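Forgive a beginner's question, but might I ask you for the amino acids of a protein and the tokens describing how it folds?
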Amino acid sequence: MAYYWFKAFHLIGVVVWFAGLFYLVRLFVYHAEASQQPEPAQTILKNQYQIMEKRLYHIITMPGMVVTVAMAIGLLVTSPEFLKQGWMHIKLAFVVALLVYHFYCGRIMRKLAAGECNWTGQQFRALNEAPTVLLMAIVLLAVFKNSLPTNLAGLSILGMIILMAASIQLYAKKRRLDAEKQLAASQAKENEITGQVTV
């Protein structure tokens, strides 16, 4: 019975942790892009994002991570035979990578607050895809265990990475084109007003 309690709370912790990680880096995107705003909007937005990032990291993401890891330890204590299986070693390696990512996000958050981070919104969008890849690998290993079709899983993960990279590039292109259209429209309007004043 203890195994099922640990498993239930482990899954709850995973959902909370990943929700926090996904949203945290999305806030980093907005925080970085706030630099493009004129004052006083820039300072107001950066201060607001800083507050949101700090609360999200300490109130949601960190507790989610702690619950996930604590319940995973409980699962391994109640079922130590998993530690003898190869799929678990690979899964734990991915979890370690996720923990590194988690604490790296905390470091970025502190650098953003200090005004020492020069990352662009585009770079943060790419960073935001890392936990998706890790989540996919971890879930596939947890479900299939030793019977994971590695060729198919590898191709799926590679395909997802390519799709995410293409999506980020397409979105960047769309934003650039939208900005160019907006600039052209404002210049046309300015020319129209200047023409009316001259007449």
